[in-house]
Task: structure prediction
Amino acid sequence: MRVFLSILFLLPSLGFASVSMDSIPNILFYTQRSLNSNIVIYEANFDENGILNPEQPIEYYWILLEEEGKREDLTYTENKLAYGLEFEKMNDSLYRVIFKPDESLEFFLCLKAPFLAELTAQINNIKMKLSHVYVKSKKQLVLPKVEYVQFFGIDKYTQDSICEKLNY
Result:
């Protein structure tokens, strides 16, 4: 089941943008943080034939809700330490995806049909189709300290909505 949500942060009258997930055609999931309302979008990256791009099967970038929904690339540091991904091609329709900040987390990107991909994860021994991630952090001098991460999605076996939490 695809996530059809509108994300609203704070009040539009305060100048914060909203983003409709419907407007992002190949969205796999998004990451929301406690430190501000900006989000990272993770989209399946297809070629013109609907096949996953073998160089970078997932494209990811900021949506700066605090700046009227502006799109921006992650910085080098954000990519390496916080939100970046690495890919390992298993076959033409399956990729192993590793989150750089926690390489123990393993995800799989599967091409289900042309222009249709699904990202699955196993968190706390529960296999889920991931829809979004919430990162609770606290500010420190140099880099924020992650307290916990919540993973939201659909249980692959029961089809129930679920949330799994990892403490750091």
The chain is about 5% helix and 55% strand. Confidence is low (pLDDT under 50) at residues 1-16.
